[in-house]
UniProtKB/TrEMBL annotation:
The chain crosses the membrane at residues 20-43, 63-86, 98-117, 234-259. Disulfide bonds join C155-C171. PANTHER family: TETRASPANIN, TETRASPANIN-17. It comes from Tetraodon nigroviridis (Spotted green pufferfish). This is Tetraspanin. PROSITE patterns: TM4_1 (PS00421). GO terms for cellular component: plasma membrane. SUPFAM superfamilies: Tetraspanin (SSF48652).
Amino acid sequence: MSRKHHHFRGAEVSCCVKYFLFGFNILFWLLGAAFLAIGLWAWKEKGVLSNLSSITDLGGFDPVWLFIVVGGVMFILGFAGCIGALRENTFLLKFFSVFLGLIFFLELTAGILAFVFKDWIKDQLNFFINNNVKYRDDIDLQNLIDFAQDYWSCCGAHGPDDWNLNIYFNCTDLNPSRERCGVPFSCCVKDPAEDVINTQCGYDVRHKVELERQKHIYTKGCVGQFEKWLQDNLIFVAGIFVGIALLQIFGICLAQNLVSDVKAVKANW
């Protein structure tokens, strides 16, 4: 049966849906490839590829894994969506829509559970932070901690004394480090007149009394400051999550619409 006859019967694949879905997934795929490339590059730079035994060491958090996992999932789904739309392959389109729907369901479940068990999650967050103060040992985690402390004007999980858990900053007599009883420079109150960051500004600061500390470093914990930031920016944060959810639903609807069109055309063969 000719293509012309398909048009006459009204069963045809919508070019708008097909190429819009293709373009949507091209951006999704490229973004995933970028995340994956950054993660693999950082992974290689840290020497993981030359020491395969370290791959099984999952005892602590490593920000690189976040890039690799998120990038890998986005890359696979974007690739499946692109090829599925371009080739009108119903298997790949169903794969794309089902897994995107699964991710949406997991995000929705996580959001509900986070609201219901917020106190438990807060305790776990505290436990996680206290067990991952690997400042100096992991450059990626160090940069993440510095960013958080600088951005939220905080120091430690609950306060500066949390840095006693770190081997370089603890106040024990056995600690030979020059940073003993200090804090990272990201805890320091910034002087607007200084153009160059003073990386030694936190030295010996925990020897000082509380009032004296407040002149030099942030004394509020990052957990409390993060909670305050969430409350102050609740609409913005909720808008981001709603926007991501709508994009996912939109992608699923496009894929399912294209599957229906392809099936309708095949039914007329």
